[in-house]
Design brief:
The protein has 204 residues and is mainly α. The chain has one domain. The protein is built from 9 helices and 4 strands, in the order H-H-E-E-H-H-E-H-E-H-H-H-H. The longest helix has 21 residues. It is globular, with a radius of gyration of 16 Å.
């Protein structure tokens, strides 16, 4: 299931170009976060990466400082911890941009299973743990399918996540990885761009 070397070359080229070209966007977002609420601009979270190795994932902070890093590891629908600018960043996925640095460092890929919190990885079955054979991604097949995941997490959210959503997402990723190629990754990236620009329709 390990991806071809061409995918790593794509990761390096796109992440390096993205960090170089998007630095003005990073600055604007950083100023907006700093003005909206006290606290650091970046949020750092421990996630499980390739071969089960933990790493620090970077995101723009979207929650108030007193609760960022505390409370549920998953953001639920109408989560009161999320700031107004944070809701915009999460809706547009701009909060994920710092993960280009994770990609450049080799901890993540542009496309792959979303990196999970260690709290939930321990619940994986041996078959589900096969997703850990590849680098986690900024976007992926399951990310597109569940791009509105937060809206599904209302009452009894953790039970539903563990018993319904997480297994479904993992199966989607396993099915995708079984036939993964550079072309399929480019298609995922194109679909992600269409969704983020509002041209991806109601389904992904």
């Amino acid at each position: 299931m390990r991806p071809p070397d061409s995918l790593r070359a794509l990761d390096v080229a796109v992440s390096a170009a993205g960090l170089l070209l998007l630095w003005p966007v990073f600055v604007v977002i950083g100023i907006a976060i700093a003005r909206s609420s006290p606290g650091p601009v970046l949020y750092k979270a421990v996630r499980v990466g390739r071969e089960g190795r933990p790493f620090v994932l970077y995101k723009f902070r979207t929650m108030v400082r007193s609760t960022a890093g505390h409370g549920p590891a998953i953001t639920t629908a109408a989560d009161p911890r999320v700031t107004p600018i944070g809701r915009f960043l999460r809706r547009t996925k701009l909060d994920e941009l710092p993960q280009l640095a994770n990609v450049l460092k080799g901890e993540m890929s542009l496309v792959g299973p979303r990196p999970e919190d260690p709290h939930y990885v321990v619940l994986y079955t041996p078959e589900q743990r096969r997703v850990l054979e590849v680098r986690p991604g900024i976007t992926g097949a399951a990310s597109l399918e569940f791009r509105d995941e937060e809206s599904l997490l209302t009452e009894d959210w953790e039970r539903r996540y563990i018993e319904e959503i997480m297994p479904t997402k993992l199966q989607i990723e396993l099915d995708y990885l079984a036939h993964r190629s550079a072309a399929s990754d480019l298609w995922i990236l194109a679909r992600t761009a269409l969704v983020l620009t509002g041209r991806g329709g109601s389904g992904a």
